[in-house]
Amino acid sequence: MMQRILHGHFWTVAPWLKHQIRAPRLAPSSPFSVHVDDTPAGPVRLLGRIRHREDAGSILVVVHGLGGTSESYYVVEAALRAERAGLACLRINLRGAGGDGDDIYHAGLFSDLHAAITSPELDRYERVLVLGYSLGGHIALRYAASGSLDGRVHAVAAVCPPLDLERAVAAIDQPERWVYRRHVMSGLKEMYTAVASRRAVPVPLDEALAIRTIREWDRRIMTRRFGYQSAEAYYASESAAPRLRDIAVPSLIVAAEADPMVPLDTVRPAIEAHPRSPLLDVQWLRHGGHVGFPRTLSLGFGAAPGLESQVIHWLTGH
């Protein structure tokens, strides 16, 4: 048991640390921007980086996790593998991420993803594939089950997504997970600081910076910004688990049994307790942590080893 726990921690931290020491070089990309008309906040701007390929009919859209950005190490890794697979790639920042400071996002806000996919800059592509990590995976699944999918979206993959927001928040707010919680909240506070420099925010900046748990963040900030009666009402309203039956395109969930940030006992019950679409494939992995995996990993999909290579092969197969 202890070996399994240590294994999960190692593969959560080691890939991130490696990226901090020496980030890989990506192929040249261009700035991406699109506006979302979001009432009552008014139009908000989304930014990102896009790698066009004249020889590609498909584009991979990659969505970061909570507190992450388009430069997060796992997003960069997905872009590298997309390049090798001959795909164009869009690394999107959800609203406010990456320092643009226009607004903040929540766990079910798939309108950002839809706006990016339907932007004129993606008109040239016949097929759109979506890959989301952690909360970005949750948003991708919500989009797949939304009933408002763009017709060019052929497949969706979610890596280590929290499917039951109530359970997931209760888990990451546990004292023993303080390191991971602090890392996530650091990204959220950077985003909030940028937003506060440009427009009115739900609570004063100094109060937001003093928040220490995800639930308190959701209770004090998310509820006021998006009109939920409580944090618990927000979780019940936006969790993907009850909507798994509504998924309308081939979708893949990859979950690590030793994930220390989105633990197995928050994900498996969420899947088992709800009917799910026959289009949904769930892969449980014994090896790996939170969005970090050994380079030798195979899902049995007949592709080169490595999580991103395997998942992108699955996506392109649909």
Automatic annotation (TrEMBL):
Q: Where is the AB hydrolase-1 domain?
A: 60-293
Question: What GO MF annotations does this protein's record show?
Answer: monoacylglycerol lipase activity; short-chain carboxylesterase activity
Family stated for the protein in its record? Belongs to the AB hydrolase superfamily. AB hydrolase 4 family.
Q: What is this protein called?
A: AB hydrolase-1 domain-containing protein
Gene that specifies this protein: yheT
